[in-house]
Input
Amino acid sequence: MRIGIITESFPPEVNGVANSVLRVAEHLVARGHQPLVIAPEPVTGFAADTQHGFPVFRVRSVPFPGYRSVRLGLASPAIQRALLGHRAEVVHLASPFFLGALGCRSARQLRLPVVAVYQTDVPGYARAYHWGRLAEAAAWRWLRDIHNAADRTLAPSTPSIERLAAHGVQRIWMWGRGVDVQRFSPAHRSDPLRQALAPEGEVLAGYVGRLAPEKQVELLAGVAELPGVRLVIVGGGPAEARLRRLMPSAVFLGQHRGEQLARIFASLDVFVHSGCHETFGQTIQEAAASGLPVVAPAVGGPVDLVEDGVTGCLVPPGDAAALTAATRRLAADPLGRAAMGRAGRQRVLARSWSALGDQLIGHYAAVLGERSDAAGHPDPVSPVPRPGTPAGARAA
Output
């Protein structure tokens, strides 16, 4: 198959959307398919694009207000020309909103089937950035129009499916995210790194992710003050300066990726996640693969990824005291931490990028088949799948 992937973000940006698109495209190439990635131009140059085993087409972009490293792709007729030049058979919209909206329109004009992957809680971000209820409602209308124009929407978690369906999105299937269980593994635990981070033998509680208002990292201030616990924060973003002032005892390591990030994960004792707007929570999977118990809010993606009392602790969303208390309990219970870490890793072993990538290829094949059936049969020959039908329930 020839797939046009239109994404709101792509490396060198560091976030869940960019990482998952890269892994999907790599898997497609490995399976003999031909992806084209269409993405906003980054802040830095384009040299990295030549290192991929697939073409990357960049469109002009502008910085997201207040967060210059996040780019918003601008409308361009070149998107349609790129799809035509690639001879795309199916279009994949990765977390569509700005660039994805135009990509969806271009695909419809070219009569190409579309798979839209829901990955970013934009309405939730509208709340986090205090844009008001009108902005949140407008974001839902915009998302609903994009996703309902697609042949199917893939959502990463049960709460995401329920939320999309409640806002009128149709034709929803479950599709999660893969994790590299070789890279993220307890085997990469580093005693020298632990000594550098916790010279007094403190329990290491870590957060990995963007430092932006929607991530609510300030809720970890109580964790930073726990006796015998050292809070380690990995990531960067517009909230970093404020968070450094708020949590002077925390260790801020900046952005890391690849083997160094895997080493940091494996060297922690507890993973703490604060944000309440996660449609999935890729860093939670990476922490579990690294053998860590996870403390996270009981909302959105974490609900599917963390089993309370078995692989970690789920706490009320937005409750800083509950995050602190759960971390305190785990810090005082090394045997419990170890048992939860083993259980968490066992559960993610089957969620490889290879397995999830093959599921995605099944969705591409399904929408191509549905278009072919519709062309040959003007009247529907099977019912439209109801919202929430899990991946694999119909021709996945």
